[in-house]
């Protein structure tokens, strides 16, 4: 009987990945992204808000929430957290280090950039809300403030680290209920930096250059990861 010819593996044979290895490497690279997307979808379904996370861009809610933190949010009327409670309300829930709900709102004067601040109390149209406000957070009398008397029903708000109500400092008018997009549940330190950096890049150079830059970084990172995984797999197979 003849003997089977022995084949000595060449360098090209050793380095050429098989289709199954390529598929496994690709699946390994896509799995983390798919897992993150799945978690985001599940959280959004529970929270009733999209996106279910917001990145903090300022220190106005320090020390509990710092710049670069990621805040988990929910729809305002989502069970069991329905409604909006102000910090002066009896039995107000504790949110992010203080009493009262912390909400995400976008007044017309903010150029579309949302604000994450705490609700102090609701007001009615025509009300002199300074009469029941904390005097230390009001700079001036009602007649000296643009937002007083209240031009419409809504809420007075403030940042925990700021020295005035938003409506006293001119940061926002009385917040209409329809301006409130979500309310905060909890925060995760430092997980929002990527979003903060991307938003800053968009503001400086525009959407297209930022997208190209992020895409290039992702492609290089993915290529390096695939190469590393391939090398590790080959070493284990030797």
UniProtKB/TrEMBL annotation:
Domain Peptidase S26 intervals: 35-119
Transmembrane domains' residue ranges: 26-50
CDD domains: S26_SPase_I
Main subcellular location of this protein, as a coarse class: membrane
Pfam families with a match to the protein in the record: Peptidase_S26
GO-annotated cellular components: membrane
SUPFAM superfamilies found in the cross-reference section: LexA/Signal peptidase
Location of the protein in the cell: Membrane
A molecular-function term among this protein's GO annotations: serine-type endopeptidase activity
Cited InterPro entries: LexA/Signal_pep-like_sf (IPR036286), Peptidase_S26 (IPR019533), Peptidase_S26B (IPR001733)
Keywords: Membrane, Transmembrane, Transmembrane helix
Signal peptide start-end: none
Superkingdom classification of source: Archaea
GO biological process: signal peptide processing
Entry-linked PANTHER family: SIGNAL PEPTIDASE COMPLEX CATALYTIC SUBUNIT SEC11 (PTHR10806)
Name listed for the protein in its UniProt record: Peptidase S26 domain-containing protein
Gene source species: Halorubrum aidingense JCM 13560
